[in-house]
Design goal:
This protein has about 150 residues and is an alpha+beta fold. It contains three helices and ten strands, in the order H-E-E-E-H-E-E-E-E-E-E-H-E.
């Protein structure tokens, strides 16, 4: 009887611990390198942006271009990062809640990670024109952001 009770206590503690870990805010966060000296960084469900890797920013002496949240699609090579993003807006039902993406209008960006130039915001047509002008390969195809992209 005592063994069964002890096993039940251990099981309850283990389940509580696992549920606590699974519900932590940072569980789904990730970062991985894109382009040269940049990373795609997700710190919450809607804060997903392209930013300089800290060492790169410090070695170059300060502010560098970035693509703000919420980045929803991305593609990159050694030089360019292409991104589709939505602006974040106040929650319509409760302004005290975290911001949410405004999915009614998409914005497109091209970040030159070598010359540190951010092109955009564009609509899709302007984005494709700038992409052609810069000679960016058609092999770079925007893909939905997910944590395994950097592997």
């Amino acid at each position: 009887m005592k063994k069964v009770f002890l096993k039940s206590i251990v099981a309850v503690i283990l389940i509580t611990f696992l549920l606590t870990i699974a519900s932590c805010a940072g569980v789904g966060d990730f970062a991985f390198e894109v382009g040269t000296g940049y990373e795609l960084w997700r710190s919450s469900a809607h804060v997903v942006r392209v930013q300089p890797i800290e060492e790169n920013r410090l070695s170059r002496g300060g502010e560098m271009p970035r693509i703000e949240a919420k980045v929803v699609e991305i593609a990159w090579d050694e030089r360019y990062v292409l991104a589709k993003r939505f602006n974040l807006i106040n929650h319509p039902e409760n302004p005290n809640r975290p911001e949410i993406p405004d999915e009614t209008k998409a914005y497109y960006y091209i970040l030159d990670t070598i010359d540190l130039i951010l092109y955009g915001a564009f609509d899709l047509e302007g984005f494709e024109q700038k992409r052609q002008e810069l000679g960016i390969s058609d092999d770079l195809i925007l893909q939905p952001v997910h944590p395994n992209m950097g592997n």
